[in-house]
Automatic annotation (TrEMBL):
Topology with respect to the bilayer: Multi-pass membrane protein
Keyword Protease part of the UniProt annotation: yes
Top-level lineage group: Bacteria
Keywords: Cell membrane, Hydrolase, Membrane, Metal-binding, Metalloprotease, Protease, Transmembrane, Transmembrane helix, Zinc
A Pfam match: Peptidase_M48
Species per Swiss-Prot/TrEMBL record: Streptomyces triticagri
Required co-factors: Zn(2+)
Domain Peptidase M48: 75-292
Name listed for the protein in its UniProt record: Protease HtpX homolog
Top enzyme category: hydrolase
Length: 300
């Protein structure tokens, strides 16, 4: 069933293209390693099993990592009320609702599809934002579920791990494979490392480019659903400003989930780092929301 979230054809094209290129890249990668190493079947099977497990249990993994827990209506009536209103407006299944006991102000959506999705907000976000701003943030997160980009990012992000697993397998199997093959071992390892580095670099760039665009698409779709781009802009400004006050140790703990957050736990520090960021700059997001506000004739 299609939701009423504004469809984004450009996002769909980017997701399909990214998954096609990543799939092609890893087929070639595995084929090359089979030729070089003669035996990587075990690693491929293990990597595939881990990928399926992460995809199937992505909601549980994310909640556990972020110290989140599911909450019922009696525990969080206001939060459930916001999600109920948004899902009714979007004509989509209601996801499970969770809260993370973290001071870091943020939110994320996870799950393999709309019927198995979870939206989670931190207690830090609830304390800092108004009800209207929390609604804007949740509309943004629900749009990720409706656009199905959560599942795509989950799969795409995990594929980079395969390269590392195969490299380790190659290194140890060749290292302990016998002293009479030292020259061959060195040559094979050099080629494997070079191929792996290339595969990881291309994967990294493809995933980052998709992640930045999907955040802009979610901003637009969420703001269109609520009809209040300025409220989402206000939430973005508050959250981004308050993240800077969170202890760096706590931010580094959450950084692994940057691609799934409403705003990154640790933003890029340099101009070069911005090219590899999971999110567009705050300025870029605010400009887009300001243009939407003018387009909708929003007062104020």
């Amino acid at each position: 069933m299609r939701s009423r979230f504004e469809p984004d054809r450009k996002l769909t094209v980017r997701m399909v293209l990214t998954m096609f290129l990543l799939g092609l890249l890893y087929v070639v990668f595995v084929a090359a390693l089979i030729v070089l190493l003669k035996s990587v079947v075990l690693v491929v099977v293990i990597a595939a099993a881990l990928l399926v497990a992460q995809f199937w249990f992505s909601d549980r993994i994310a909640l556990h990592a972020m110290r989140g827990h599911l909450v019922g209506r009696e525990e969080q009536p206001e939060l459930h009320g916001i999600v109920d209103r948004l899902c009714a407006a979007a004509d989509m299944p209601k996801p499970r609702v969770a809260v993370s006991d973290m001071d870091l102000p943020n939110a994320f959506a996870t799950g393999r599809n709309a019927d198995h999705a979870v939206v989670c907000v931190t207690t830090g976000l609830q304390r800092r934002l108004t009800t209207e701003e929390v609604e804007g943030v949740l509309a943004h997160e629900l749009s990720h579920v409706a656009h199905r980009d959560v599942a795509v990012i989950t799969i795409a992000s995990f594929l980079g791990v395969i390269a590392g697993l195969i490299v380790r397998f190659a290194f140890y199997s060749q290292l302990f494979g016998g002293r009479n093959r030292d020259q061959n071992t060195a040559a094979v390892l050099a080629i494997v490392m070079a191929v792996s580095a290339f595969v990881y670099a291309i994967s990294f760039l493809l995933i980052r480019a998709l992640s930045r665009y999907r955040e802009l698409a979610a901003d637009r779709a969420g703001a269109m659903l609520t009809g209040k781009p300025s409220v989402l802009a206000s939430a973005l400004t508050k959250v981004s400003g308050d993240v800077a006050r969170i202890p760096t140790r706590d931010l580094r703990t959450a950084q692994a989930f940057n691609a799934f957050f409403f705003t990154p736990a640790l933003g890029p520090g340099t101009a070069l780092a911005k090219l590899f960021s999971t999110h567009p700059s705050l300025e870029r997001r605010l400009e887009a929301l300001s243009a939407m506000s003018a387009e909708l004739g929003e007062p104020g």
